[in-house]
Amino acid sequence: MGVETSQLVGANQELITDLDDPFKRMASDLDDKGFIITELDNVVNWARTGSMWWMTFGLACCAIEMMATNASRFDLDRFGIFPRPTPRQSDCLLISGTVTAKMGERLVTLYEQMSEPRYVISMGSCANSGGPYCDHGYHVIKGVDQILPVDVYIPGCPPRPEALIDGFLKLRDLIMKETIAKPSA
Fold first, then answer.
1. What tens digit of pLDDT does each residue of 22-45 get?
2. Which of 120, 115, 70, 122 has the alpha carbon at shortest distance from 96?
3. Cβ 93 vs Cβ 120: under 8 Å
4. Cα separation of 153 and 156, whole Å?
5. Same domain, 20 and 98
6. In whole angstroms, what is the distance from residue 71 CA to residue 84 CA?
7. Are residues 76 and 19 in the same domain?
8. With a threshold of 0.85, does the pTM exceed it?
């Protein structure tokens, strides 16, 4: 039960071709010249996408799917995405479930305590648009985007863990397009 070196060489070549574009460019530069030349934006954004820490904020049935996504079957840890219990350690706020007016105030407070850059994922029909409760209650916020800027919407009632993983991958794509340069006034 061993692995031959010829299998490893072939496997490594396949791994290099399956990597993301910025990393592929860095690997090819390193192979040809022995050093890497890249933009600072690419390195910083690559580091940010490799260690996204999201704050757990489950309010309703979508929270069960959120917990299942972090369990052993789907395992977000392999993407470098870890849940954190405090806003001061979090990059991303994942809102899953019905947001009421009372909870909305606390949600804004938690969002303001997060350090920059911060991202918001709205998970499920209730967080996206108020869900089935928006017509029957004055207390339900008709979408979390009325109180916070949302970066990624994940539809479904409740969305499957695969949809949440896809939402995190969409957020990675958004982060890779950012720049650390200050916008001109």
1. 667 767 766 666 666 677 888 888
2. 122
3. yes
4. 10
5. no
6. 15
7. no
8. no
